Amino acid sequence: MNGFIYSLAIARSNASILFAGTYHGGVYKSTDGGASWNPTGPGLNPSAVVYALAVDPTNPNIVFAGTRGDANNVTSDCSGLDSGGSNVYDYGGGVYRSTDGGATWKKVDEGLGCGYIYGLAIDPSNPKLIYVATHQRGVMRSTDGGDHFSYQTSGLSDLSTRSIVIDPKDSNTLYVATWHRGSVYKGTNSPGLITWNTANVGLGDLHVIKLAVDKTQGGSKFCSLLYALLYNSGTGLARSGDCGHTWTPVGAPGIALYSYDLAVDPTAPSNLFLGMTGLGVNKSTSGGVSWTPANHGLYNTSINTLVVDPAVPTTFLCRDEQWQRNVYQPGTAARTGRPLARDCHFRAISILLS
């Protein structure tokens, strides 16, 4: 496996199948739970950065990759200005789909993403519905499994989106995180357009890196408990129990200043995990009020992505330290890591918690 790993995805229908997206190295696939990895087939831009991956929840052969192309080959193919007033450029990436388990890939977003994709989400109740968070063009949606996409930006004042999640209590309710202003938006899916409304009381105009959903409890009877991971905002983490209408800061000051992703333990929702740059993994057993390092067996880790597996309580860790290029799986009661793969830089962690 070559290149930093920026994204991971696990097939819900077969937890032995994993995909890893890299920095300038394409997408790799494992069919044995991460014990071995092989590059997937042609069709992807070979210089792309794979920021997002999503696997069809019912068919592990259908995989989507969200990419950014080579920053040295940016073109002006995408016209107009973004929500920050800057020119919109085509970065050479986009949304790619494989229908044969990664043997081949095809670009399917028809250039609407302007070559820079940060987030993907597939509706678990209707896998034909696919949502895309783009860097410059807001949110895109496909209603036919990725054959066609359309912009869904009504109500979005910030088109630089970073993360998009579907509420498991109501799959027509969506939340998207934005970078420049507006913080979090709540959207309602309909056969026509998704209409977005700001959902940031208590957040202000902050940079939001990722959103995470507590799929088991909390929130209200209509929506799930939400967490927002914030960039350089004092506490760095906020929680909403009322469908995103209001947010409350949680966590020790500065805990998330070096964090890039957040995962909620589905078996114990008060347990949260943070992936942090240079500081490995931090864990909270108090819903984010206090945090402790959870790095037994790890060394100088830089963690970029956290993914929850619905079936297998196993952990895979990837990181970018040159002197320890391993994929880890939790080991004994002492929680020391066991290497699963070697000879690459890693930039992601996958928490497979069941």
Please explain how this structure is put together.
By secondary structure, this protein is mainly β. The protein is built from no helices and 28 strands. It has strands at 5-10, 18-22, 27-30, 38-39, 49-55, 63-68, 94-98, 106-107, 117-122, 130-134, 139-142, 150-151, 161-166, 173-178, 184-188, 195-198, 207-214, 225-231, 237-240, 248-250, 259-264, 272-276, 280-284, 292-293, 313-317, 326-330, 337-342, 349-353. A four-stranded antiparallel sheet has the order 1-2-3-4, with no helix packed on it. A four-stranded antiparallel sheet has the order 5-6-7-8, with no helix packed on it. Strand 2 and strand 3 form a beta hairpin. The two termini are 26 Å apart.
Quick summary of this structure?
With 354 residues, the chain is mainly beta. The chain has strands at 5-10, 18-22, 27-30, 38-39, 49-55, 63-68, 94-98, 106-107, 117-122, 130-134, 139-142, 150-151, 161-166, 173-178, 184-188, 195-198, 207-214, 225-231, 237-240, 248-250, 259-264, 272-276, 280-284, 292-293, 313-317, 326-330, 337-342, 349-353.
Name the helicity range. under 10%
Identify the strand order in the major beta sheet. 1-2-3-4
User: How many angstroms does the end-to-end distance come to?
Assistant: 26 Å
Q: Given the helix and strand composition, which structural class is it?
A: mainly beta
Q: What's the number of helices?
A: 0
The biggest beta sheet is recorded as: 4 strands, antiparallel
* Poorly predicted runs of 5 or more residues: 313-354
Mean pLDDT: 78
Along the chain, the helix and strand elements come as EEEEEEEEEEEEEEEEEEEEEEEEEEEE
The shape, in one word, is globular
Number of DSSP strands? 28
Rg calculated over all Cα atoms: 19 Å
Approximately what portion of the residues adopt beta-strand conformation?
A: 35-45%
